[in-house]
Design goal:
The chain is an alpha/beta fold. The longest helix has 28 residues. A 6-stranded parallel beta sheet has the order 3-2-1-4-5-6. α5 packs parallel to α7 and α11 crosses α17. The chain has 17 helices and 6 strands. β4, α16 and β5 form a beta-alpha-beta unit. The chain binds NADP nicotinamide-adenine-dinucleotide phosphate.
Length: 457
């Protein structure tokens, strides 16, 4: 009976996934998008559990409890700045699940031809994404060396291993093969995942994780063909496409080449740890900053990674409220790769209930800086570094930036003259119109708020 309803469950679930992706495109509809995605997943899981042959519901319930006992604390305890690590872990387990299902199906059916080809793609990508994601997690969490580990002939070794593994897989498509072949195929995939990540610097991990997301999606899509489950193929294909598009967007926003993404071959690290220059800069106190901000008409706030580290979003919201009440037009300029994960700044500001219509994308706001009184940079560095425009040899040359330097006055809240993610000095800090506001973002913004006057109740 339930079998006849299964296509309806799946069609609603697939539509929910597509709507979820669409709604998550904008902060206004993002919550609805998350709910739609969750509903789709619930329908897909319930439909599958009811309609397909299930060996033992008890085992599934036990697995569900163990998974939830691990997943729920991770979701609640991880700070927002650690979301890339959390994402790496969830990809690792998702990919492992797909790979284990593939392994079980291999020993159950011993398929050949098209089904074996799909199973090969599923297990190869599943196992390699598992170890690659664990390595990415280790690098981000600094459990393994974050620097790129390279040696002579590395690419040849990696490509040979991949070619041998694929050749074993291809043999299994054509023949049953001896019993050692499938375990060797698994071993090659697991090892390739590790070798793929070791030459990549920790700083490139967020982009790599977006790419691994797409690999895991492709593995699930292939699993859909193996199991004859159209829902898995649809969800996997959506996952593949969205992860892939995201990694391309991140690469473009950082001016990394598309080919590097495609072949997962980020060899070089960007970190060049510049010595902070000894040149003089102008600095100001919270009182001075508050009196300037209170006397102008247009302010653009540029949030960056330091805002997230300091958790200054709620204080920033208080400052926004007071300035707005005082008649100042305050907007927020969002760079696509500000922070350490896509949408990092949107999520932070949404958490503090900053009105969405005050958040401007880079392309929308860049022409406004020239007619802006103050560009207030809070914990951002690379995304406002004019070297991207002027210095062809800079590691960030060609990266699109927010044109903060075109505002009449620039104020920068950061703790020191240390460089940001790309490890390079920033000319913006030495300009005559720039005031450095040295301090932790949260306490500095709190001091400005105090100077501006307590919020009205
Ligand atoms: P950034 O260039 O990393 O600079 C952050 C600045 O925040 C630092 O210069 C630091 O200076 C300051 N800071 C740190 N803690 C602070 C605190 N508690 N209070 C005040 N300031 C603090 O950040 P960004 O401008 O946001 O640029 C993001 C970078 O990450 C880009 O290079 C981008 O390519 C890269 N990236 C982004 C993503 C993504 O998806 N968003 C992914 C991978 C890589 P002090 O130490 O002097 O305070």
């Amino acid at each position: 009976m339930i079998e006849s309803f299964l296509p309806v469950f799946y069609i609603i679930a697939a539509a929910s996934f597509i709507l979820a992706l669409k709604w998550m495109n904008s902060p206004v509809t993002a919550r609805r998008g998350v709910l739609a995605g969750e509903l789709g997943m619930l329908l897909a899981v319930v439909g599958t559990l009811l309609a397909h042959e299930v060996v033992d519901y008890k085992l599934i319930f036990i697995a569900f409890c163990i998974g939830s006992a691990i997943g729920v604390p991770i979701a609640y305890k991880m700070p927002m700045t650690a979301v890339p690590q959390q994402t790496a872990l969830s990809h690792a387990f998702g990919a492992l699940a797909a790979a284990l299902v593939g392994t079980a199906e291999y020993y159950r059916m011993r398929p050949q031809g098209f089904t074996m080809a799909a199973l090969g793609v599923e297990t190869l990508l599943g196992f390699l994404t598992f170890t690659a994601s664990l390595m990415a997690f280790g690098k981000l969490q600094e459990l393994v060396p974050t620097r790129p580990v390279t040696y002579k002939g590395q690419n040849v070794v990696n490509l040979t291993l991949l070619a041998v593994t694929i050749a074993i897989g291809a043999t299994l498509v054509a023949t049953t093969g001896p019993p050692w072949m499938f375990p060797a195929f698994i071993g090659g995939s697991l090892l390739f995942g590790v070798l793929l990540i070791i030459p990549i610097g920790g700083s490139d991990m967020p982009t790599v994780i977006a790419l691994l997301n797409s690999y895991a999606g492709l593995s699930c899509a292939a699993m859909g063909f193996v199991l004859g489950n159209s829902m898995l193929t649809i969800a996997g294909a959506l996952n593949f496409a969205s992860g892939f598009i995201l990694s391309v967007i991140m690469c473009r926003a950082m001016n990394r080449s598309f080919t590097n993404v495609l072949f997962g071959a980020f060899g070089a690290t960007q970190m060049s740890t510049a010595q902070a220059s000894q040149r003089p800069v102008r600095s100001a106190t919270p009182e001075e900053a508050a009196s300037i901000l209170d006397g102008v008409r247009k302010v653009i706030v540029i949030p960056g990674y330091g805002l997230a580290v300091a958790q200054a979003q709620h204080k920033l919201r208080e400052m926004y409220d007071i300035l707005t009440r005082h008649g100042v037009d305050v907007r927020f300029a969002i760079h696509p790769v500000a922070g350490r994960m896509p949408g990092h700044m949107n999520v932070l500001l949404a958490e503090a209930d900053v009105p969405y219509d005050r958040l401007m994308e880079m392309d929308e706001i860049n022409s406004e800086f020239a007619v802006t009184d103050v560009a207030l940079v809070i914990g951002a560095n690379d995304v406002v570094n004019p070297a991207a425009r002027t210095d062809k040899n800079s590691p960030i040359a060609g990266m699109p930036i927010l044109d903060a330097d075109k505002a009449r006055t620039v104020m920068v809240i950061k703790r020191s003259m240390s460089p940001g993610f790309a490890g390079i000095d920033n000319e913006l800090y030495y300009m005559d119109k720039t005031l450095m506001l040295f301090g932790d973002a949260k306490s500095f913004v709190a001091s400005i708020v105090k100077e501006l006057g307590a919020p009205a109740h």
